[in-house]
Amino acid sequence: MPARAAQLRSCLAVPLALGARRLAARENPMTDRYAVIGNPIAHSKSPLIHTAFARALGEDIEYTRIEGPLDGFAAAALAFRDALGKGLNVTVPFKVQAFELATDRHEAARIAGAANALKFTGSRIEAENFDGVGLVHDIERNLGVSLRGRRVLCLGAGGAVRGAVPPILARATTEVVIANRTVATAQTLAGQFSARGRVTACGYTDLAHEQGFDVVINGTSASLNAVLPPVPAAVFGNAALAYDMVYGKGLTPFLRLAREAGAARCADGVGMLVEQAAEAFVWWRGVRPDTRPVIDQLTVPLA
Ligand code: NDP
Cβ(210)–Cβ(231) under 8 Å? Predict the structure, then answer.
């Protein structure tokens, strides 16, 4: 069977398997329940990813989507817990509320001030944030680009960059520069992380004086609307990697500029998405899934 057709067949198989497992869960009260909560949530790939992990590892789980009411995150999360839910992935706009709901907050969640995963154990609600480690694993393990000794430019200073900067600095980078439209937000982040390594902040106009970076990461939400952050092409001149955290959009304006300006490699955030899911899976289940087949399945070509 051609690879593309095989991919399509396995894409279709996951929701079917999910349905079958939902049935199994209702019939088998021992099946552990997980879900992703957000609003909107219909687009979420998390059920597909976790169901694929569980199937590959023979783990008996049910994984569903919950559209949390905008004014009722805590009630929805606790209702899921009370219905014997074991854990939640949390996405926009509830990551800060999930952090606040927790009784125990792990370091990455504390640094980010936000949680993208919760674990329910008795009356304990543990909060974690795997976005940053997912990004670093994707860059170093999947894309083969070491961050050690590199100059890294992060565009944006929202939740995703806040979670990403500490694990990037932990890889012994030479310097991380955070550039943001609202410069004060970037300055606040740089100040918070200055004890962890060399990190500076600037606005986009300041980048005009830069000769180039080794790795350029777009952590803004601009690509969601096919908008290019005002980044000068020169920053990509020596880049080993240009990385857009947005996924599933093909060649975004950011990646197109990077490619034209000479970046050696371009990637979107699909690997980050799957790697953060894998970290949550290990945290919940104690077994590590192979991420490669799922990344391949979800990859949209950069064309
Ligand atoms: P936030 O809303 O917290 O932050 C958005 C950031 O984008 C801000 O810094 C904002 O700047 C900046 N921004 C928005 N529009 C523009 C624009 N037109 N030009 C320049 N800057 C702009 O979002 P998150 O940090 O949570 O998410 C950022 C992106 O990362 C999203 O696209 C999200 O989909 C993606 N993401 C991907 C993940 C993955 O697993 N692949 C995981 C998490 C996030 P300002 O401060 O000036 O408003």
Answer: no
178 lines ligand 1 (CB under 6 A): no
E-strand stretches of the chain: 32-38, 61-67, 85-90, 104-105, 117-121, 124-128, 151-155, 175-179, 199-202, 215-218, 241-244, 266-268
User: Is there a contact between 67 and 40 (Cβ–Cβ < 8 Å)?
Assistant: yes
Helices 46-57 + 3-27 axis angle, to 10: 80
156 alpha carbon – ligand 1 mean position (Å): 6
Identify the pLDDT of residue 29.
67
* Domain boundaries defined on the chain: 28-129+272-298, 132-268
Residues marked as catalytic: 95
pTM: 0.91
pLDDT tens-digit profile of 203-227? 999 999 888 999 999 999 999 999 9
> Strand, helix or coil at 39?
coil
28-129+272-298 topology per CATH = Rossmann fold (3.40.50)
From atom 3 of ligand 1, which residue's Cα is the shortest distance away?
158
Tell me the mean pLDDT in the region 75-91.
97
- Pocket test of ligand 1: the residue of 49, 204, 220, 294 to mutate, having most ligand atoms within 8 Å of its CB, is 220
Confidence of residue 27 (pLDDT cuts 50, 70, 90): low
156 lines ligand 1 (CB under 6 A): yes
Please write the tens of the pLDDT for every residue from 240-276.
999 999 999 999 999 999 999 999 999 999 999 999 9
247 CB near ligand 1 (under 6 Å) = yes
Which class would CATH give 132-268?
A: alpha beta
How many helices (H) and strands (E) are present in the chain, helices listed first? 11, 12
The model's pLDDT over 184-206, given as tens digits with 9 standing for 90+, comes to 999 999 999 999 999 999 999 99
